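Comment thread on ticket #2218

A.B. wrote:
> Attaching the input chain for the structure job we discussed in standup.
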Amino acid sequence: QVQLQESGPGLEKTSQTLSLTCSDSGGSITTSDYYWTWIRQSPGKGLEWMGDIGQNGITDYSPSLKSRTSIYRDTSKNQLTLQLRSVTPEDTAVYYCHARTDRAVDYWGQGTQVTVSS
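C.D. wrote:
> Ran it. Output below, let me know if you need it in another format.
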């Protein structure tokens, strides 16, 4: 059974680089077989798409975050990583990873809270 799990520091300082990982605690997923997305939700706001990485490794980022965001797969650890550079308190949000199969089956993590302190 697929069980996506996001992991991160919880608390980050302004100007630092936030690094989050997403993996399947159920051990069912091979990351390169899926299309991955990172999404976040800030307090009082809707869901914000951050970026994708396809099965071919090609990435696509939100224009507003592109200069600060990197998404990549670590095949040796079978996990997905999001890096967000130069964070500010406006990056405080719950961060979610999402995986989609070729048959359009969707899996979501439960989200991880990140708070950026000033």
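A.B. wrote:
> Thanks. Noting for the ticket: The chain is about 0% helix and 50% strand.
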